[in-house]
Design brief:
Layout (H helix, E strand, L loop, with lengths): L1 H12 L7 E7 L6 E4 L7 E6 L3 H9 L10 E5 L5 H10 L2 E7 L4 H21 L3 E3 L22 H6 L4 E3 L5 E3 H10 L18
Antiparallel strand pairs: 1-5, 2-3, 3-4, 4-5, 6-7, 7-8
Length: about 200
C-alpha cells in the first residue's frame, strides 16, 4: 500500500512537458557543433547555427519529430539551467541530456534574430578578408601593435597565428581579429577603418 502511494506521489510531482519541449540525448567525443548565444533577458541558450555535427545529425535522423534546429532553445543541459553552467557542460561532457524548446518566446526570438544577423554578416566579411603570409607593413592601425606575417612554420609563427594579418580589398592591412571585430560590429555595410571604403555584403 505504501509502495502504491509512493508511486502516486512520484507521478504527481513529475513535470509534464509542453508539446513544444522535449528531451534530447547526445554523445560526442568532440564538439557538439552548436553555435549558441545567450542574453541577460533570457534564462536559456539559443541555437544560432548548427555546424557539422555527427551527433546532431544522427539524433535528427532517428527522431524526426524531436529535431534540433536553429532557433530552438536549450533550457537545460545535464540538469543545469544557468547558461554558463550549460556551456561548461557542453564543452567538457562527452554525453549530454538536453531540454529543448522548439517554440521560442518573443525575447528568445529577438536574441536569435540579432545573433543570426551578426553571424551572417561575419560570414560575409570572411569572403573578402585575404590572409597575408608575407608582407612588410606598419603596425595595425586598430590596436597599434606590430603585425608579423612571415610564411614560416616555426614555433614563433604558430604563436603568432592568433594575430594573423589580413588585407582588405582596398589594400590596407590589419590584424584579422581586430578588423573582423570592426567590420562586423559596426552598423550598416562594413567599411575600411583607414580609407572608409564601403564593402557591400549580402546578409
Amino acid at each position: 500500500m505504501a509502495f502504491l502511494k509512493a508511486i502516486k506521489c512520484f507521478k504527481s510531482r513529475a513535470k509534464v512537458l509542453p508539446e513544444t519541449m522535449y528531451r534530447v540525448h547526445l554523445e560526442s567525443e568532440g564538439p557538439y557543433g552548436l553555435m549558441l548565444c545567450g542574453h541577460e533577458t533570457i534564462q536559456c541558450l539559443v541555437i544560432v547555427s548548427i555546424q557539422k555535427s555527427k551527433a546532431v545529425k544522427a539524433w535528427n535522423s532517428d527522431h524526426p519529430h524531436c529535431r534540433i534546429e536553429e532557433g530552438h532553445s536549450l533550457m537545460e543541459v545535464n540538469g543545469h539551467t544557468e547558461p554558463k553552467q550549460m556551456l561548461d557542460e557542453l564543452r567538457r561532457a562527452k554525453a549530454v541530456d538536453l531540454l529543448v524548446s522548439a517554440e521560442p518566446n518573443a525575447q528568445q526570438l529577438s536574441v536569435f534574430r540579432a545573433a543570426r544577423a551578426l553571424k551572417l554578416k561575419s560570414d560575409a566579411v570572411d569572403t573578402f578578408l585575404e590572409e597575408v603570409t608575407s608582407c612588410d607593413v606598419e603596425p595595425c592601425s586598430i590596436c597599434h601593435e606590430e603585425m608579423c606575417c612571415h610564411n614560416t612554420h616555426t614555433a614563433q609563427h604558430a604563436a603568432q597565428h592568433a594575430a594573423a594579418v589580413v588585407r582588405l580589398p582596398c589594400g590596407h592591412h590589419f590584424h584579422q581579429k581586430c578588423v573582423k571585430k570592426w567590420l562586423v560590429g559596426g552598423r550598416g555595410d562594413p567599411r575600411c577603418p583607414l580609407c572608409n571604403r564601403i564593402f557591400e555584403v549580402a546578409c
